Amino acid sequence: MRxxxxxxxxxxxxxxxxxxxxxxxxxxxxxxxxxxTTSFAPREEIVSRGFFVFxxxxxxxxxxxxxxxxxxxxxxxxxxxxTVLGTIVNMSFxxxxxxxxxxxxxxxxKALNLMVLFTMLFGGGIIPTYLVVKSLHLIDSYWxxxxxxxxxxxxxxxxxxxxxxxxxxxxxxxxxDGCGEWRLFGRIVLPLSLPxxxxxxxxxxxxxxNAYFNAVLYLNxxxxxxxxxxxxxxxxxxxxxxxxxxxxxxxxxSVKMAAIVIAAVPxxxxxxxxxxxxxxxxxxxxxxx
Length: 289
What we know:
CATH topology of the largest domain: MetI-like fold
Distance between the termini: 50 Å
CATH class of the largest domain: Mainly Alpha
Number of helices: 15
C-alpha cells in the first residue's frame, strides 16, 4: 500500500492556499478600486462608456465640488466632532466601569455583571429610548448620541476580563507606595492594558464615525447631521434625480464615489497603526470570564 507523503503534498497545498488567497484579495479589492477610479472620472465619460475600471481622462472635479459644498463639509466636521468626543465618552465610561467590576471585593459585583449581560440579550427598544432622550431634553443634541451608546456590553466584559489579568501583587505594591485609586488606574492599569484600550478605541471610533440611525432619530437639525446621513441624502437625491436647492446640481456618479472615498479614508488611515494590538487585546481579554 502506498504511503501518504505529507512533504510532497505540502507544495500543492501551499499553491492552492496562495491561489485562493489571491482570488479572495482580488474580489475584495476590485470594488474598492472601481470606487476610487470612478471618483476621478469625468461625468461625460461615465455616461458614455458605462462600466469601466480605469478612465481615459483623470480629473479631480468631483473632489473639488465636495470641498466647496457647504453641506458636505459641515457634515464631515460634524462626523469628526462626534467621533472624537463620542469615543472619549465611550472609553471613559467603559474603562471606568470595567475597572470597578474587575474588583472581586466590590459589593454587588455579581448583580451588576448580570445587569450588563442582560442588556446584551434584551434591548430597551426604539420608542422607550426615544421617550427617555426626549424627557431629558436631549433632542437635537449630540449628547443623545453619546449617552445612548456610551457603553457597549461586549466591550465592557472583555475589558473587565483584561483588567482581571493584571497581577494583584502589582496593585498592592502600588497602594503600599501611597498610590491612590485614580492614580493606580491612570498610571498603572491603563498603560498595562494598552492593547485592549487601543482595540476598543478603534471599535468605538468606527461606531461613532458610521453613526446613522441614531442621528436620524434624535437630530432634527440638518446642520448637525454627520457624514453618513449626508451620504444617504445625497444617494437619494441622485437616485431620484432630485436637484440640490443650493446649487441646482444633480449628484453625478463620480461625486458619489468621491464622497465614499473621503468617508472611508480616515478609518483606513488609522487602522494600520492599531492593527498590532487587535489579537493581543481580544485574546488576552477573553481568558477570564
